[in-house]
Request: fold
Amino acid sequence: MAISRRARPGSANSSVAPFERRRTNRYNTPMTQESPPVPLEHGDGPLTGYRVLDLADEKGQLCARLLAELGADVIKIEPPREGDPTRANGPFFKGEQGPNTSLYWWAMNAGKRSITLQLRLEAGREILRKLIASADIIVETRAPGESAALGLDYASVSAANPAAILVSITNFGQTGPYANWAATDIVASAMGGHMHLNGDDEHGPVRTTAPQAFAQVNAQAATGAMVALYARAVNAGVGQHVDVSMQEAMANAMDHAQQTWDIRHVNTYGPGVGRQTAGVRSGRYLFETADGWITALAVGGLIGLRADAAIDWLAESGEARDLALPAWRKKLTAMEPLAAEERAYVEETLSLFCTPRKKEALVAEAQNRGLGWAPVFSPGEIVESRQLADREYWVRVAHDDIGESFIYPGAPYRLSETPWRQRGRAPHIGEHNEQVYSGLLGIDAAELRRLKLKMVV
Amino acid sequence: MAQQARKKPFEGLRVADFAWVGVGPTVSKYLADHGAEVIRIESSTYPEALRRVGPFVNDTPNIDGSGYYANFNSSKLCMSVNFKHPRGPELVRRLVAKCDVVTESYTPGTMARFGFDYESLSAGRDDLLMVSMPLYGQTGPWANYMGYGHVLQAASGFNHLTGWEDGPPIGTGIAYTDFLVPHFAAVAVIAALDYRRRTGKGQFIDFSQLEAGVHGLGTAILDWTANGHEQIRLGNHDIEAAPHNAYRCRDGRWVAVACATEKHWEGLKAALGRPEWCDMDRMRRRWQRLNEQKEIDRHLGYWFEDYTRAETEEEFQTEEGVEGPPVRKFTTRQVVELFQSFGVPCGIVQSAEEMHADPQLAHRHHYWKLEHPYMGLRTYDAPAFRLSETPGELTKAAPMLGEDNEYVYKDLIGVSDDEFVELMASGVME
Reply:
């Protein structure tokens, strides 16, 4: 397939790696084996034997991928010709945009089959009904008013297959005053209460740059799909509609802010370094070190039961300042809220201690002393981390179309009997048309050609 | 159409829930809210950490008064047992023998110390499903590292990707991974339950909070492994959409605005009244706008800061005929209604208080009010999904410590009335 070599101009906001900054990459290796099948077989997963149709955008593609990795046959349905709009989501491999170079597409659609189908045509919806009849789970993300016209509303789906589970993932849910509001990740992060808990007084609220409303709603939708699948088995094969809200998924990521409001009528908010709960800062500290940053639990790290261990450590290297004095020890172990200037003194002492030291050594020694510290890792440092290397976490995925293989994240869970498996690279547009239309639906070659000419497929 | 009564999905399944803090209890909450009998296994000698963390009713620490603990443990029962008591481990094993699922999130090795490892608990049966959910997994040099989601979010990349450009990696304000990774674990547990339903076979799931968390990083890992490019925190900017930011309004609060598609951008232009800067050549395409983020922020900033004079008494008490001080023209509510009417993604950065009053969440009945014997009527979160046939149901408030001892010890473990009194006196329930 021709890849359009339309390079994006280098951008100031680092959306694309500027080429001069691109390191020689030691992770990509030439492929040694013959082209593996796409997707790879998965005969021993807990979901092997189930079929999933994926008609989702960013709100549901990871959900469907998780099911594929547990063994389900996931068929991604794309519009003919140009393919799924998310193929245009950056960043791109080598910064060059093309239908098969989106790293977003790679990450979220690995291990699926792809077919093309035009749902705006009745002939396309006719085929969709046949696919639905053969499927267990359908994942779709259309706005509530738009799904019916494409045959993706629950009435149409259950008419085609009463046992089907339709997972509809929307911004705010199928009904309600905001049901038709537009949203993206940041809007759901805002309306879901999560963003209010991030940020600082000076700059205001902040979002996590890697989209979390999308991550959250995908994982929670997959859980909902699993509950419905189990429910079907105990209810004589009855399917159902799983109505998932991205706002609500974020509402579940508010820590105890909602309960703090409910019980104390206090609004928890921001500062990312230490949460403010009515004058009490809790959570953790952030300290700069010689080679980056570390985080330290406040309770269980510097104050509270473990404070003595932290103070002893500082004292042993002669850097405890006044903290080793009995009065300070008493104050820190007592877990009473510190006055602002006391807190500043504690933080300064720890900061002076951390600044000249290296982060992994600091964390190792802290852990050795029973203190809950962790390094701040970048994506690259996560890939290099010895914990994940020791656990053989990373998976090498062959891209036969490029002739290289790449490192992907590995198992999010290790099941002893029915393993998680990475199932190869993401599919090209309509890569499995013949496999699915002929093999699964029994459409013959002449008919398939006719459907292609009519732009149905 | 009259509907046949549906069975709750997990009706008849019993779960021994050894898990604590956020991650494990969230997983078993899904099971409990959908029909499983989930039994929390706790001790007053070694209390579950969250029972000692607020918010507390009346601001008074109480083992049964934590809202933090309560929210993770709706619909569950609770038995109390001290593992270190000579009779503790045996009683726990007898309970597990009556259970289908074991959930736990202790540091690796803790369960084994009491003979509660999978091998021991599943001896003589092959249908036990057990999931262990520590921070870093069962093996590896970090297996015994301690911490909570507050610091795991640093090790799993979320701090690095949260904060202002050129500022420190502040991370989210919360124990973030505690609120992300359990939804992954739940997928695996329920899929394994489905396999068990079909084959009668249980299994052990080694779940590492770190390893699941990495799947929440979007494209950051592949951008590094394929391109050698480290993604970095961008404040409220985005690698794919511009404009993309939060702006302050008249009421001092913030709205988030994003244009991810051409349609959104056209809508924004119309909502702003097509100012000249929107139609400049370098604003035409999405990738062009990405290069102009700062310029767009500047123009939009002017729009949001378009000062007018305070009009209402609430805003400023003015004397007759005297103008009030300058204020921003629009409130958050006005901006959101204007932008949404043009199809522009826009929403208020809502506080817990506003979430509590949010009409959409109320419509979906997201917050449940459950009566607790000590805490009174309290707010609980529901799952983000509504099942049309077998909807989740939060059947009861969180359990008091040892609330269900009589049922668990007598009916499940099978101790007699006399022995129950004896055990109570022995201290094994403390």
Q: What stands out?
A: Chain B has a mean pLDDT of 93. Residues 244-248+254-312+323-348 of chain B form a domain with the formyl-coa transferase, domain 3 fold (CATH 3.30.1540.10). Residues 96 and 367 of chain B are 32 Å apart (CA to CA). Chain B touches chain A through 162 residues (CB under 8 Å).
